[in-house]
Amino acid sequence: TINGLLMYLFDRNDLAHVHLRVLAAGKSVPFSGVTRFVDMAKRLDAAQPSISISEIGEDLSIPHTDVAKIVRSGCLERVIVPGREVRVCQKSYAAYKAKFLDPNIIDIVVAAKMSGETLQEFRSNWIETQLVNVIDLGLRRCIAQDEFIRVQAFRSQYVTARQAVFLTQKGRHTLPNLEVRGAISSIREGGRRKIRLFDRMTAGKLFW
Asked: Do residues 92 and 108 make contact, with C-beta atoms less than 8 angstroms apart?
């Protein structure tokens, strides 16, 4: 059995003679004794220094319950120790803290508002097309500021067919139909899934 990080090693011959019905009845079973146990906690702590979630909470000025959520999300590497205490690998925390305090990242909720898009639209247009990379911090998701600037540059020069509906008061298929006729051209940007963009100035000349 394993109790925390205390590993108990039993003699196989002792276990072979254990009757499960006796154990189920709650009766104690005499063993000739534990052959030996290994205290692994000290070894692990020496090999992998750790920090408590309370200490992390104080350092980042957030509730320790939020730190626990970050650990559960997988953004912080948990170190298993005896008992119920939750501790985090110090190396993992150092890397996370650098991202958490990075002034050059922006929350995607804020980025969407600044772009004049709903969060769903921002995800569909820029994240799912891999034009920006998400930095997952557990409690919030962010993008690099330089990638956000690139998105703004795209938005200042191009419009999507859906955005054109609000700008031109025309149908969603208006720009694609005009492209078929050769009146306007589009570009496709992104990874495996691409976003279709139409030149904003050309669209403006056609409708405004």
From this structure: no
